[in-house]
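In response to a reviewer's request, we include the raw inputs and outputs for one of the modeled complexes. The two entities were modeled together in a single run.
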Amino acid sequence: MDPLASLDFTKGNGLVAAIAQDHETGEILMLAHMNEESLRETLRRGQVVYWSRSRGLWHKGEQSGNVQILKSLSIDCDGACHTGKRHCFFRRWDGSSWVDEGEQVFDPKEVYGG
Amino acid sequence: MDPLASLDFTKGNGLVAAIAQDHETGEILMLAHMNEESLRETLRRGQVVYWSRSRGLWHKGEQSGNVQILKSLSIDCDGACHTGKRHCFFRRWDGSSWVDEGEQVFDPKEVYGG
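The model returned the following structure tokens for the whole complex.
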């Protein structure tokens, strides 16, 4: 399975927003963007590569040495929420497919109607 | 001090990206957008109000009851990073001003040049 097949890059003119969160503390480190190439590079390298209007393909930390080591990658529901999950980013890439790890907190049919 | 004075809404055509993170677990709940009005409403109500292209002003949870209670609000450096902080979102609104709570991890002059 191609991990990128589950992502829609067309809405954002080829870009998606990418949130970097510290693996241990949960701290949000930064918000940036990725295009298809940067996401493929991220998965290939195991280090985070963004895409920026000014820099183009941007391997974070290539200048400072403060690279971001990829520990885990999850995607959100892209606006098609209302699944009754606790949070939007419930699909995690396990190396071969997107795994649903979301905690179900309510039944969407009961709350939003069937 | 007007909290909105420190935010640049012009780059995103009146919108900024807003990340909701669980106050206790650090889990990222969702990524959505705010305009000026939604951010003012968020601060006024103490519950998170987004802006969405389809819904307009969107008081999260008004239908499901699962509102997001505002515990803390921080803003990032808006691309003007390279401050040597551990993360971008180091300014927290304390009710009257933006407080710098960032941990300094390196000297930007040494790493990026003066």
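As requested, we also summarize the result in words. The CA atoms of residues 5 and 91 of chain A lie 13 Å apart. Chain A is about 15% helix and 25% strand.
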